[in-house]
């Protein structure tokens, strides 16, 4: 087992950078607030992704896609609460509302009443600056039991519009050839199931944050 420990004073991205080399995956225990993770869609074997590329139509905001590559550094998302209801290291509860902030650009996973470019479902984008956005950045974690467990799949329901974070199956051409469309689907399905994979899983305050092994 390879384990990386950081204190609260060390910037979280240090361990995110290290995880690119050791391929860390947390498969046991709970997913916690403040953790930085990659989210795998098992139906399509792709990870939720974003980058500083804007949609050419629709909202024109930063695009959100899904990629096959497990080691892509643009696939890390920080799990944050709304207001003060998600303290660092606390287990994420089923039914809890989260913001998912893209680590490399500081924009939040977002959805709104624009059509997605390929499938015509609801567009999913990345919005805001420095982790600050609006109420359209809020997603409800749908899972069984009390808390989101690393070994289980979950779904994300958009709090305002009620769509489900999904991979449509459509594939982009240039300039992001091969990346899959991420959209908001009107109903949940296997296309909207996600699992926490590589990342930094924070423990309760006064303890340490840790990577868990592959």
Automatic annotation (TrEMBL):
PROSITE patterns: MIR. It is found in: Secreted. Pfam families: MIR (PF02815). Gene3D superfamilies: 2.80.10.50. GO terms for cellular component: endoplasmic reticulum; extracellular region; protein-containing complex. The keyword RNA-binding does not apply. Its main location: secreted. InterPro entries: MIR_dom_sf, MIR_motif. Residues 28-82, 89-144, 145-199 form the MIR domain. Keywords: Repeat, Signal. Residues 1-26 form the signal peptide. It comes from the Eukaryota. This is Stromal cell-derived factor 2-like 1. It comes from Eptatretus burgeri (Inshore hagfish). The lineage of its organism: Eukaryota, Metazoa, Chordata, Craniata, Vertebrata.
């Amino acid at each position: 087992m390879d384990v990386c420990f950081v204190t609260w004073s060390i910037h979280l991205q240090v361990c995110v950078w290290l995880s690119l080399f050791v391929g860390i995956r947390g498969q046991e225990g709970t997913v916690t607030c403040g953790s930085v993770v990659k989210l795998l869609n098992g139906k399509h074997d792709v990870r939720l992704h974003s980058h500083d590329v804007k949609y050419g139509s629709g909202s024109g905001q930063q695009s959100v896609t899904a990629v096959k590559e497990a080691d892509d550094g643009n696939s890390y998302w920080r799990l944050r609460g709304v207001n003060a209801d998600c303290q660092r290291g606390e287990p994420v509860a089923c039914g809890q509302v989260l913001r998912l902030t893209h680590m490399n650009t500081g924009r939040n996973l977002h959805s709104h009443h624009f059509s997605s470019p390929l499938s015509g479902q609801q567009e999913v984008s990345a919005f805001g600056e420095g982790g600050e956005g609006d109420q359209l950045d809020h997603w409800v974690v749908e899972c069984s039991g009390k808390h989101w467990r690393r070994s289980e799949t979950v779904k994300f329901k958009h709090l305002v519009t009620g769509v489900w974070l999904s991979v449509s199956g459509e594939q982009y051409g240039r300039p992001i050839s091969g990346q899959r469309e991420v959209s908001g689907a009107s109903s949940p399905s296997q296309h909207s199931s996600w699992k926490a994979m590589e990342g930094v899983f924070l423990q309760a305050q006064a303890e340490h944050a840790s990577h868990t092994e592959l």
